[in-house]
Every structure is written in C-alpha cells, then in structure tokens.
From TrEMBL:
This is DUF1016 domain-containing protein. Residues 180-327 form the YhcG PDDEXK nuclease domain. It holds the Pfam family DUF1016_N. GO terms for molecular function: nucleic acid binding. Transmembrane segments: none annotated.
Length: 343
C-alpha cells in the first residue's frame, strides 16, 4: 500500500478531504431521513385531519377508531396504525393545523417519536419550534430531546441577553438569521477538560474534535482552518479558527479566549473582519462575522465595547462541563419519571 506522501499530499490535507467527505455523506443521509419523515408525517397529518373532521372523540368514537385500526392494519401491516397511534395523529393535527407555516414545517421533518414527545411534554408552540429546529440542526435522538426539555433549554436560551451588534451591522433579514444561528453560550464538555488549559491547547483540542465542535455550533458550518493566515501591508495576521456558513453566505472568524471578555478583543476582531472582507470574501458573499468565544462575559461590558463598531461581532461564553446542579437535577428527574433509556 502506498503512503500518502507518494501521492504528494500531507496528513493535514488528507484529514480535510476525509472530513469534507464524511460531512457530504452525513448531509445526504440527513436529507433522505427528513424526506422520509416528511412523507410519513404527511400521511399521519391526513389521517388526523380525517378523524378531526369526522368529529370522532375518545369515548363514543373509540369503537369506530378501533375498527378503522383493524381494517387499516390488514391493508398496511407495517405502518403502526394502532388505535392509540390514530388518536395521536388526531392530536398532531389538532395541535398544529391553525399554527403558522414555519412551525408546521419545523415539525414536519421530525421523526414521529420526537413529535409525540413534543406534543406530550411541551405546552408552548414557540418552544416546540425551538426544540424542533434544534433536533434538525443537531441530530438529537429522542432521549437527547427529552433531556433538553427536562432542563428547560428553551427558557434558558430565550432569557439570554444577546451580546452582539448584528441588528446594527447587518441587513434586517441577515441579522434575524444570524441571531438564530449564533448562541450566547456553547457547551464544550465533549473536550473532557477538567483542569486549566492555555488558549493554544484549547484550540488544539477543538481542532482534534472539530466534528463535535461543528455539531455544537449548529447546522450550516464548514471548517476552513485554524491559525488562518492573512497578509496585508507586509504584515501577517492569524485567526484562531475560520469557518464558512452556507445559509448566511458569510465567513465566520472565531477567536478563543481563556479568561473573561475584555474590550480590546473587539478591536482585534474588527481588524480581522476588515481583512477578511478585503482579502477573502467572495463577490457574492455577505460581510464576514466574528465570534469572540471566552470563559465569561458581562453583557454591559460587551455592549459598550461594541457600541461604535461597524463590523458584525458577537461575544459568547463556553462551558467545559455541565454544571453540577443541572446534572444532578436532570438525573433525579429522569429516575423519578422512569424515562432513562439507552441512547
């Protein structure tokens, strides 16, 4: 077997090829899965609509639905058309048929088990839309969705103060999308860090687990490189991590900081974004976006630092471990509910 060096390619270049190939396959599989889910949910929606329009209710309608289930199962034995499922389809239709198209599209691509979980455990439709989008973006299993619901992730995200200037520096439609894409906090628990590390080590660990980091960032990110070199006026500049977001059509620069946020970080990021827009941005691409990822931030400090900046910059915190109190609470709730299953 020939070594990579005989093909004039080094290990890092090959790793990037492999990474992109895996991403292509995973993206294709996700699209196929969503198409299957959409088709199945369309059938369930139609059956639920039929039961709703015939005004069948549990109680007097139970005999009709039971007979319908028996007859349908003979015709379609592999579709899981039990009386309970038929009633769930009716609830599915009742829950969403008067809601906006955005919400209906969000739940349409979910597996049926995820939809049942949302119907049974989430009262707010805005929360349903949030969880549905998270499932689609991050590929959550049913149990991961259950954990997120029990931790009330929706309320935590909703109550977060946005620490960015997107609304002032991007067109309205882009700003709205950017606020959906970028979070105020990222969980880097997958790194397994239990003691203090230097910024370069943190970066190296993220690079070694870049797939997990891209998953945490969310849907649409493609990794370009770390310590990305820019040269201008005979000077060199290096960006910690550079990504491209397909939906935003923007380069995304991420700077890693071990300590708390400092105002001077904004000036440095502003320079990087100016250089990216001048040297790297494609003709049809939108302005580059910067994210300063630090261990801690005060939203008032961030607000004043971003006040007169004309480049789109956000500041986010990272967590290296799930807070002990949240973890204990989650485990206790799972035990009480008897919902612990193998993921």
């Amino acid at each position: 077997m020939k070594s990579l060096s005989q093909f004039n390619i080094d290990d890092s270049d090959y790793s990037e090829i492999l990474f992109q190939a895996i991403n292509q396959i995973k993206t294709a599989r996700t699209v196929v899965a969503q198409q299957v889910n959409t088709t199945a949910n369309s059938v369930y929606w139609s059956l639920g609509k039929l039961l709703f329009e015939k005004q069948l209710e549990e109680g007097y309608g139970s005999r009709v639905v039971k007979q319908l289930s028996n007859d349908l199962k003979r015709e379609f034995p592999d579709m899981g058309l039990s009386p309970r499922n038929l009633w769930d389809m009716k609830r599915f239709y009742e829950r969403y048929h008067l809601e906006n198209q955005k919400l209906r599209q969000a739940v349409a691509v979910l597996p049926w088990g995820h939809n049942l979980l949302l119907i049974n455990k989430v009262q707010s439709n805005s929360a349903v839309e949030f969880y549905a989008n998270e499932v689609t973006a991050k590929g959550w299993s049913r149990n991961l969705l259950l954990n997120a619901i029990k931790m009330d992730t929706y309320s935590q995200v909703k109550d977060e103060i946005k620490t960015n200037n997107f609304n002032k520096t991007l067109p309205e439609i882009n700003a709205e999308y950017a606020n959906e894409v970028f979070k105020s906090s990222y969980n880097l628990g997958f790194l397994g860090i239990t003691e203090p590390v230097k910024e370069l080590e943190l970066e190296n660990r993220l690079i070694s687990k870049i797939r997990a980091f891209v998953l945490e960032l969310g849907k649409g990110f493609s990794f370009i490189g770390n310590q990305y070199r820019l040269e201008y006026n005979k000077k060199e500049y290096f960006i910690d991590m550079l990504f491209f977001h397909r939906g935003l059509q923007s380069l995304v620069a991420i700077e890693l900081k071990i300590g708390s946020f400092k105002a001077e970080y904004v000036g440095k990021m502003n320079l990087y974004l100016s250089l990216l827009d001048k040297l790297e941005k494609g003709e049809n691409e939108n302005p580059s976006i910067g994210i300063i990822l630090c261990a801690d931030k005060d939203h008032l400090d961030v607000e004043i630092a971003l006040q007169d900046i004309n480049k789109p910059i956000g500041v986010a915190e990272y967590q290296l471990l799930l807070p002990k109190e949240e973890l204990q609470s989650l485990i206790l709730n799972e035990i009480k509910a008897g919902d612990i299953e193998n993921i």
